[in-house]
Amino acid sequence: GNSVTQMEGPVTLSEEAFLTINCTYTATGYPSLFWYVQYPGEGLQLLLKATKADDKGSNKGFEATYRKETTSFHLEKGSVQVSDSAVYFCALSARSTNAGKSTFGDGTTLTVKP
Amino acid sequence: EAGVTQSPTHLIKTRGQQATLRCSPISGHTSVYWYQQALGLGLQFLLWYDEGEERNRGNFPPRFSGRQFPNYSSELNVNALELEDSALYLCASSLSDTQYFGPGTRLTVL
Fold this sequence. Notes:
The complex is a heterodimer of chains A (114) and B (110). With 114 residues, chain A is mainly β. Chain A contains no helices and 12 strands. In chain A, 0% of the residues lie in helices and 49% in strands. In chain A, strands 2, 5, 6, 10, 11 and 12 form a 6-stranded mixed β-sheet that branches. The interface between A and B is medium-sized, with 22 and 23 residues.
């Protein structure tokens, strides 16, 4: 079956540090890949997505590249801010007859200190 | 464009009672998904509805059930509530492969 493995947290960084949150996946076929962000007490917000190999998704300074050869979709940001403190989820959506049941990673908690 | 909405925001029940949670998808979206997020844990897939039919179900007991109405809104019902049902219940809607989430309903079982 499909699975998503995220870098374990929590991750604590100082403001303006470089961020990487690793995400690898297992899926049949060619899934779409996503990063979602969840701020305290809120639902998940779509941060970025990529639908095919070598696509780069980007939003709000975050980016991730769909790497089919390494089955990875690592999230990066060059300079984090305190406001980026949140839980980040990597997810995939498989294009199959079972499509619709997205698979989520366990989430990585990021805390950015001033 | 209005996003996914959920009601109520908070719900407090006692053990053995029933809870009903509601979700309105983004206009034009035909699929609705329900997830349970217990404190400190990830998302656990509950149910997927599309065009009024239940398409897939996660590993939850039958006391978790729901339905989708002709206007594509959805209800999640939890019968015989247990303490461990306390969680944030998230609804998402989609038209294709991208799910858009609502703010969630925080269910507390006392």
